[in-house]
Amino acid sequence: MKKNNLPIIPLAFIAGAAVGNSIGSMLKHQKHGCNKNHCCHHHEPACCDKSSTITDEDPVYIRETQTSGHGL
Amino acid sequence: MYYSSGNYEAFAHPKKPANADKKSAYIVGSGLAGLAAAVFLIRDGQVPGNQIHILEELKLPGGSMDGILNEQRGYIIRGGREMEPHFETLWDLFRSIPTLENPDVSVLDEFYWLNKKDPSYSKTRAIENRGQKIATDGQLTLSRKAVEEIAKLVLTSEEKLGDIKINEVFGSEFFKSNFWLYWSTMFAFEPWASAIEMRRYLLRFVHHVGTLQNMSALKFTKYNQYESLVKPMVKYLEDKGVQFQYDTIVNNVIVNRTAGQKIATELDMTVAGEKETLSLTPDDFVFVTNGSITESTTYGDNNHPAPTEHAIGASWQLWEKLAEQDPSFGHPAKFYKNIPEANWVISATCTFTDNRIVPYIKKITGKDPHSGSIVTSGPVSIKDSNWLLGISISRQPHFKQQNPNELIVWLYGLFSDQPGNYIQKKITDCNGQELCEEFLYHIGVPEDQIADIAKDANSIPIHMPYITSYFMPRKTGDRPLVVPEGSQNLAFIGNFAETKKDTVFTTEYSVRTAMEAVYQLLDIDRGVPEVFASSYDIRTILSSIYYLNDKKSLEELPLNKVEQIGLEAFLKKIKGTYLEEIFRDEHLI
Ligand SMILES: Cc1cc2nc3c(=O)[nH]c(=O)nc-3n(C[C@H](O)[C@H](O)[C@H](O)COP(=O)(O)OP(=O)(O)OC[C@H]3O[C@@H](n4cnc5c(N)ncnc54)[C@H](O)[C@@H]3O)c2cc1C
């Protein structure tokens, strides 16, 4: 019985590795509506991404991702 | 009602439901959802056609699925429909609708043969610098972090994503990827659109990740969808005796709520300007298309912009009246109020007779637009366009009456709050000629020819204030269930009715909700084809991992030391097993 389960464990691991993250950490850090001022932890890439910044040189459609749609 | 998959259920004919002959149906809206509901009532429910009434505020059927030669303005298409083989309920519908040309050939057959003969393939998915293919075209350019964010979104339940926007779950690396450029322009996702819908799309279309860059999975109708899909359906229904009643606004459906049951008892209408009421019995079914993304559309011409009005039309008003009566009928204002100013609202139909643009189109698409073959295979997106302009050119002729020298180009701009790159105006302020000039500039037409060609073309700007309403951020309960709990004779159909798993802004969604509504109210004993289950197919999931990482095997992924050790152990473990076979088949090892 235990043996039958074995392939599942590495499969789950590899799926996690392949998408570059462990499923555990993904679940742990699910967001519930992100307030950019309040959730700046290293595991919240979407909220607090400082490593890749968007500048005025980027095309409009990329700059617009920083707005709520009412203009830059 | 239950869901099914496979041929056993697909080819079976359901038995005639009890009392089918006694039933009547009042269908609000003659869009795809309303027409599909009528077909399913007749084909699967065996309700007599002359007991089915389609009530439509406009003077013609089809709703959003257009394509018209307007005598004053010229050819108009507000959009074109990208379709795919796994629109399960849609193909179940069109297998039964004969083409206008040949009663022995179904609309599905015509479509199938045509797309076999002339498959889509996009040579250039995105351009910049006035007609140059972007250097990384064909790659998804997702960073590891961006792929992680996709996985995280998919793994989050819908309940937890209530009212969350896409730009709250992704970071700048994701938005800078070609994946986002391709994805957002192909499906019209704005950054502030619903994360729930984005997640549904990721799951629903996971089998298309590998073809995002060339759109070879897309399929297209012969002509515009009014001529290729709506007209044959209307003929089928008219032949069966279905009553079409135009110039009829349904203002309210009165619903009696007692002992947990909801029964529609009255229709309040305005017929050709006159108020009318119609009493209903529980044997009278009411199907309401609630909300419409093409409601209050306005048109301009070469010299005038389309008026930017935001009238709250009959489809929203009726939904509001219903929502006032019962909380399970949803929250319409979520979808039509507070629409961001920067949103997509404008598309344009340009008709050219000047062949000077042909070489520029050929250079981008590799196709002669007059060859009769698909030209762009979905949109070509202009990365550096301030409006994020997209170009789509279907098979020509796109209208039966179209002359051989006419070329119809469809344009849309996903951002409306910025001046253009050539025309220093917001897209909403542009007349047809100006819109056309911006397009010509971006495809590389020399500046000294731009005004001349644009003047000669006939370009119709179209303003659709609610075009992105399907994608507004929402939470569970904002859309009514197809058949709300306790409802005996009232159903909601179309893309603002809630069905599990399927994706809005699709023709399939309209047909699915129609089928589910009819099958539930009539208790039809045959499975509704389930939403294509590719997200449960391990091959598809593995394949998507390969393509999301731009065709990298697991060993080529940027893994840290611990992950590398884990990977080695895993590969050793699966050696010689079925798992190794699947991973190998999907190029991951
Ligand atoms: C620009 C554009 C591009 C699109 N691209 C694609 C695509 O690529 N692929 C794809 O699959 N789908 C696409 N779609 C979506 C698809 O066309 C729609 O989802 C579908 O046609 C909607 O049909 P419907 O019947 O649900 O609603 P609608 O077409 O909106 O029909 C509703 C009808 O009901 C009538 N009505 C509403 N309220 C009342 C009332 N109270 N009284 C009387 N009449 C009323 C309206 O006048 C209208 O005719 C696109 C749509 C548009 C507009």
TrEMBL record, chain A:
Domain of life of the organism encoding this protein: Bacteria
Name of the featured protein: Uncharacterized protein
From TrEMBL, chain B:
EC number of the protein: 4.2.1.53
Biological process per Gene Ontology, one example term: fatty acid metabolic process
GO molecular function terms listed in the Swiss-Prot or TrEMBL record: FAD binding; oleate hydratase activity
InterPro entries: FAD/NAD-bd_sf, Oleate_hydratase
Transmembrane segments: 25-42
Keywords: Lyase, Membrane, Transmembrane, Transmembrane helix
One Pfam family this sequence matches: MCRA
UniProt-listed NCBIfam families: PRK13977.1 (NF010584)
PANTHER family found in the cross-reference section: 67 KDA MYOSIN-CROSS-REACTIVE ANTIGEN FAMILY PROTEIN (AFU_ORTHOLOGUE AFUA_5G09970), MYOSIN-CROSSREACTIVE PROTEIN
Name of the protein: Oleate hydratase
Organism field: Ligilactobacillus ubinensis
Taxonomic lineage of the native organism: Bacteria, Bacillati, Bacillota, Bacilli, Lactobacillales
